[in-house]
Structure formats: C-alpha cells, structure tokens
Amino acid sequence: MNIKENSPFTPGTPVPVELFVGRDDQIPDIIRDVKQASSGKQKNVFLVGDRGIGKSSLVAFIRRMAITENNLIGIHVFLGGASSIEEVVHRILDQLLKETREQNWFEKIKPLFGNNIKEIGLFGVSVSFDASEPDLKDLARNFPDVLYNILQKIKEERVGLFIALDDINGLAENDEFANWYKSFVDEIASSYEKYPVFIMLTGLPEKRDALIACQPSIARIFKIAEINKLSDDEVKTFMHMAFEKANIKVEPEAMYLMVQYSSGLPILMHEIGDATFWIDSDGIIDVGDALNGVFAAAEQVGKKYLDPKVYRAVRSERYRSILRRFGELQIISSGFEKKDVEAKLTDPEKKVFHNFLRKMRDLGVIESDVEKGKGAYRFVNEIYPIYIRMESERFKSVRIKTLL
Ligand SMILES: Nc1ncnc2c1ncn2[C@@H]1O[C@H](COP(=O)(O)OP(=O)(O)OP(=O)(O)O)[C@@H](O)[C@H]1O
Ligand SMILES: [Mg+2]
Q1: Any ligand 1 atom below 6 A from CB of 12
Q2: Each residue of 224-259: pLDDT tens digit?
Q3: Tens digit of pLDDT for each residue in 274-328?
Q4: Which ligand 1 atom is at minimum distance from the Cα of 204?
Q5: CA distance 8 to 247
Q6: Counting Cβ atoms within 10 Å, is residue 301 exposed (0-12), middle (13-18) or buried (19+)?
Q7: Do 178 and 285 sit in the same domain of this protein?
Q8: What is the span of the domain harbouring residue 318?
Q9: Is 16 near ligand 1, meaning CB less than 6 Å away?
Q10: Are residues 295 and 386 in the same domain?
Q11: What global pTM score does this model have?
Q12: For residues 229 and 49, what is the distance between their CA atoms, to the nearest angstrom?
C-alpha cells in the first residue's frame, strides 16, 4: 500500500503551470500582444469564458511567460467583489507592492509608495498598500502617470508591466469603470510615445457585452480571446501528466472513463482525477478505481453546483418529482428526447414539463441538442445526470426506509 500525501490535482484553483494543457489557439495571439506591449505599444485583451472553464489558469500561464520570456513585471489581481475604481486601483498597487518588494531593485520604486506601505502580520512578514480614499481617487485620476513613473525608475531592470484584472464581473455594469478605462487608454495614446503595459481582463461572456453597453468604444480597445471546453486529447494529456507526477499508472480503460466523464471541462477533470487519486490504493488506476472516482466526483460536483443551483432553488414539488423521474429513467445518459421522458410522466408532471425544461435550461443544467433536432436535449456535462440519478436513489432509499 502506498501512502498518499499530495494530490497533483487542483480542483477549483488555477492549475500550476507545469500541468497546464491546451489553449493552443489563444496563446500565440495573446503572446504576440504581450510582445508588442513590451516594445512600447500598450495592449488590452479581454479573456472571456464560462465559470470554471480556465480563465484564471490561462492568465497565470501567460503571466509566467510575460515574466520569464519578456522580462515584464507580472501581477495577477483578483477583482472578485470589487465594485469601484478606487478598489481596482488599490488592489493593483497592493499586488504590485507584494510582487516587487523582494526584488533587489525595490528600493528604487519604494519612495513612490510614500507612507502608504503598511507592514502587516507578525514580524512584518507581509506588507500591504494602505491609502486613504482621497489618495486613491487621485491615484485613479492620474493612473497612467502612476504606472509610467514606476516603470521609468526601473527601466534598466524590467521592460514593462503585465497586469491581469481577473474577474471584472462586479464592474462590468459600472459606467464609471468603463469610462475610466477608456480615458486611461486614450490618455496613454495621446500623451506617451512608449507605454509598455499589457492588460488582460477576464470575465464571463455576458460581462463583456455589459461593459460594451456602458461604453461602446470599449469594443475597439480590447482584443477578445475566448476559451471553451478542452478536447478529449487535451484532457487525456492532462490526466497522464498529473498521474505521472504522482507516480501512478493508469490502465487504458480507466483513462477512457475519466476522459469521457470529464466532458472537456477542466473543473470536472480535476474533480474526477482528484477523487480517483484518493480512491486508488495500489498505485494503478483500474476501471474500478475510475468508476468510483467518477461517482465520488459526481457527489462533489453535485453538492457544489447542482444542490444550490437546482435542488435548493427549485421549490416546486412537481419539478422535484420530475428530476427524480429523470434519475429513475435508464434511457438517460447525457442526452434525451423530450417525448421519451414525457411518456413516463404522470399527468400533473406532464403539464409542467415544458416549463421544467425551460427552467433547467436557464439554470445551465441542460441545453438543446441542435444536431439531433427539435425536442432533443442534453446535459451540459456527463456528470450532472450521474448526480441526479444518485439523488433519486437516495430519495428512494429514504422512502423505503420510512415505509418499513
Ligand atoms: N488549461 C488547463 N489545464 C489544466 N487544468 C486547468 C486548465 N484550465 C483550468 N484548469 C483547472 O480547471 C479549474 C478551473 O480553472 P480556473 O479557476 O482557471 O477557471 P476560471 O475560468 O478562472 O473559473 P472562474 O470562472 O470560477 O473564475 C481549476 O481546477 C483549474 O486547475
Ligand atoms: Mg477565475
């Protein structure tokens, strides 16, 4: 029996660069802009993708390249929850401080932070940027200058700056933010000959549209990069690399199962890989391990995504009984025909079935299967139906127990 310490999988957090796979269509384009920025042409990229599809991971990957190959300072700023420009400016400068203070050239830029460096934590092991609201307003107004002055001081050491503003979702509907960003870019274009700063925003696809609605010329500023599912081959490569890192062998059938159920979704491949990693006890993943891993992952994913989104949100008892019916129906793998399911429903269930399907579509649980034609649907991934089946089994066994 081998003792396990660390799983190579990172469900829910950006993947370490050495296990990063795919995105071959997007990376060269983005890197080209990073290079252009390095030579003085300010560039802006907006990376869009659904929740959990891999935006932050791609940002981390590009940032690494910007640092190692382009000699930029690279900062990754998480904006989750930020809702004002001052907050954005604050988080950027805070991250910049944290990222640079270990460098031997930090002394050169330290005076620019003024008295606003605050030592926090025991023995001053960490620092934060601490500025008053009026100061932050000033900094926001003069932001092009702020960054430029920093870069001027260290132009011997670093050629420019890479800034990722990750998760701008809370700001996308904010007119002020859109206008501020637009002025920032305009001012750079009109006042600086060279401005080696690359900025990458990330958000959900609908947030890009929201931002453009606030300030139509924003559309011209950004190059859009969009990421979607990974291919099965990419998922397989990832599984290979991750298990290899942990010194674990994977039998081909087991690999097939794990890849299949990952459905090209990075978040699922990590959940499935992680669950399977912990289930295995002999250093070889066989079909049994993989199946158990898929079930364990379904449980996790269902609890994290379907429970709050569907089971708790759907109050209607009829909807719930339809969901359980779904679970009982053997015909359901990942896709189904409306009429096949309808045939198994009771009359009251039939009445609300149409609305039920619409609701599930709105919640992002199922989607129309256009290739198979009208009335054909599929689950957005392979693991949701497993959880739905598990839930219905649980319900059945509770009912049997209470009947006994
Ligand atoms: N290219 C990739 N290679 C390997 N694993 C990846 C890749 N992209 C994402 N992942 C993994 O998928 C999961 C989701 O990734 P990430 O957090 O980057 O997505 P996101 O789009 O930023 O999500 P959110 O919308 O929640 O911010 C994480 O577990 C991450 O480790
Ligand atoms: Mg993210």
Answers
A1: yes
A2: 999 999 999 999 999 999 999 999 999 999 999 999
A3: 999 999 999 999 999 999 999 898 888 888 888 887 877 777 788 888 888 877 7
A4: 25
A5: 10
A6: buried
A7: no
A8: 314-403
A9: no
A10: no
A11: 0.86
A12: 9
